[in-house]
Write a structure and sequence with these properties.
Elements (H helix, E strand, L loop, with lengths): L15 E4 L9 H18 L4 E6 L6 H21 L7 E7 L18 E6 L6
Parallel strand pairs: 2-3
Antiparallel strand pairs: 1-4, 2-4
């Protein structure tokens, strides 16, 4: 008899969440580990699909500064992904600054869960 068909590998769309230190956009060892897992998932079943990066900040600092910081965080994640084989043309990003917190806080409050980039894969993965 013929061998059974290969199992269908589903795309695990995420989100994969990378966290950042206060007022930073560098990739920490913890962030690199998360990104490596996200890249493995992309290569396993999502290759060739759209990648969406959504950058966020906490509410410390001005709104305009935080938009720029969330863009720098997206850029750091984009650089990490493209250096490891994900095509730059398939990556889109949006910087939300402090407008979409994971944890609601008062203005000026630092919160480590809000300092993040969320990575999602596949159709309709935009924010």
């Amino acid at each position: 008899p013929p061998p059974p068909p290969a199992p269908v590998v589903e795309c695990a769309p995420g989100p994969y969440i990378v966290y950042f230190d206060f007022d930073k956009s560098n990739i920490t060892p913890e962030a690199a580990s998360t990104l490596d897992n996200a890249i493995s998932a992309y290569n396993r079943g999502c290759s060739g699909t759209q990648v969406m990066l959504a950058g966020h900040t906490d509410r410390a600092g001005s709104a305009s500064y935080n938009i720029g910081l969330s863009k720098r965080r997206n850029d750091a994640v984009r650089s990490y992904l493209t250096a490891r084989g994900i095509g730059a043309g398939s990556i889109s990003s949006e910087a939300f600054g402090e407008s979409r917190p994971a944890v609601a806080t008062a203005d000026g409050v630092r919160n480590d869960q809000n300092r993040r980039v969320e990575i999602t894969y596949g159709p309709n993965s935009g924010m």
